[in-house]
Automatic annotation (TrEMBL):
One of its GO terms (biological process) is RNA methylation. S-adenosyl-L-methionine binds at C265, A266, G267, P268, G269, G270, K271, E290, D327. Signal peptide: none annotated. It comes from Nocardioides iriomotensis. Keywords: Methyltransferase, RNA-binding, S-adenosyl-L-methionine, Transferase. Belongs to the class I-like SAM-binding methyltransferase superfamily. RsmB/NOP family. This is rRNA cytosine-C5-methyltransferase. May act as RNA methyltransferase. It comes from the Bacteria.
């Protein structure tokens, strides 16, 4: 059983996420390093924190059924500890005596002696049923209220359930699988940056080559920074979907020059690093642009030419680039696996606010492309307003652009038709990737 300092670390991350709006992915790794929590203990802490936050909506419904007052009246620190205990009981196969005993200890150490009896009583009640048993008790009937069931059983806010259901279109029967995939920890996937590292090198370091991206290798676990190619910046950690959309842009057929590439929304630089390596192999050059200076600085570690500019008011001449990537700021509803707290923080109104920016960024990116040049419009969201809506709106007001067929540019990928002909939509439950959307547009 991991020592209590592991659960103490998990509790402290939950506190930072709740009190300071911190991001799990930014807070957890340095905290584990600072407390010298490594190996299996680090993996346990990561699953404890991420799983607890992802499923918070469900765990709160379970706890509400076992507490005799509204959860809002429970001390927030005690509630965090109860959520951690509930995740261990219902999803981590920690024996009841260990999950309950360590949570009661945690409450005593972090909050005080008084609420420890309460925590003990509540968790003993939670331990009476398994996860499925609790879902049957606290979620609406899936037959009569499928979206209400999905909201509670898979712990997603209602508006997210509705947006994802809509984005599945005529495959709405996959909703449960999609939402369940959002609750799984994503595999750690590496990219072998072309010309700098090889897939064979990463396989020799213990990874498994993927059949979808020709540069992707998945790791069985452990710390990716321990792989020498990653430590040296020749390889990186990158979702396979991100690799696929970047290579699709690089592989699109092009007549004429192929030397000037642009990434208009480059920070923190994952796709820019891959595109820069591919451009360099062909004797070309990538210009990476990013609005926020601190994110532009991150891009610089892997890309030589980086500028801090607003992609809606570009500093480059129109009609000059052969290939352009617009990886637009988006709701991120396709990457919920990776950002445990994101689903609870975002609002439906965020999408409405993003769409005009996405349209303008795509418009300016099309201006930047030369006649015959190709533009990839990418989101890590499958929400139709951000994908189909943006592309259709921009196509409707321009007569110098057409939509290319992107599907043949992802030869290892099947069953990924997007919401407009020729577009691609990847899915966590079908492809094991983030739900990346890709449209390839061509200037003429
Ligand atoms: C989805 S992220 C890009 C991720 C990046 N391509 C990668 O693979 O690492 C979108 C980025 O667009 C940037 N951004 C937002 N508005 C922008 C604008 N008007 N011009 C340029 N970049 C912008 C955000 O700061 C953010 O870094």
């Amino acid at each position: 059983m991991p020592a209590d300092r592991v659960r103490g670390a998990a509790y402290d991350v939950l506190t930072a996420v709740r009190e300071q709006d911190a991001y799990t992915n930014l807070v957890l790794p340095p905290l584990l390093r600072a407390r010298q929590i490594t190996g299996r203990d680090a993996a346990f802490a990561t699953e404890l924190v991420s799983g607890t936050i992802r499923r918070q909506g469900l765990y709160d419904a379970v706890l509400a059924a076992n507490v005799d007052r509204p959860l809002a009246k429970v001390d927030p620190g005690v509630l965090d500890a109860l959520r951690l205990g509930t995740h261990q009981l219902l999803a981590m196969r920690v024996p009841t005596h260990a999950a309950v005993g360590t949570t009661v200890d945690l409450v005593r150490r972090k909050v005080g002696h008084r609420p420890s009896g309460f925590a003990n009583a509540v968790l003993r009640k939670v331990a009476r049923h398994d996860l499925d048993g609790w879902v049957r008790r606290v979620a609406p009937d899936p037959g009569s209220d499928p979206l209400g069931y999905a909201e509670v059983a898979h712990a997603h806010p209602r508006w997210v359930v509705e947006a994802l259901a809509e984005s599945l279109g005529d495959r709405r029967d996959e909703l449960d699988a999609l939402l369940a995939a959002d609750n799984d920890a994503p595999r750690v996937t590496l990219v072998a940056r072309p010309g700098l590292a090889t897939v064979d090198e990463l396989v020799a370091a213990g990874g498994t080559a993927s059949r979808q991206s020709r540069y992707a290798v998945t790791l069985p676990g452990g710390d990716p920074a321990a792989v020498p190619a990653v430590a040296e910046g020749r390889a990186g950690v990158q979702d396979e979907g991100s690799q696929l959309v970047a290579t699709a842009l690089a592989d699109a057929a092009l007549d004429g020059t192929d030397a000037r590439w642009l990434d208009t929304c480059a920070g923190p630089g994952g796709k820019a690093a891959l595109l820069a390596a591919l451009a360099t192999e062909r004797g070309g050059l990538l210009l990476a642009a990013e609005l926020q200076h601190h994110r532009a600085v991150l891009v610089r570690s892997a890309v030589p030419r980086v500028v801090t500019v607003d992609g809606t008011r570009p500093a480059w001449r129109s009609g000059t680039f052969d290939r352009v990537m617009v990886d637009a700021p988006c709701s991120g509803l396709g990457a919920l696996r990776r950002r445990p707290e994101a689903r609870w923080r975002k609002q439906a109104a965020d999408v409405d606010g993003l769409v005009p920016l996405q349209e303008t960024l795509l418009d300016r990116a099309l201006d930047a492309a030369r006649p015959g040049g190709v533009v990839a419009y990418v989101t890590c969201s499958p929400v139709l307003a951000e994908t189909r809506g943006v592309v259709a709106a921009v196509l409707a007001r321009r007569d110098d652009v057409r939509l290319d067929d992107a599907a043949p540019l992802l030869p290892g990928v099947t069953d990924a038709a997007g919401p407009l002909p020729g577009t691609v939509q990847l899915w966590p439950h079908r492809h094991g990737t983030d739900a990346m959307f890709l449209a390839l547009l061509r200037r003429h």
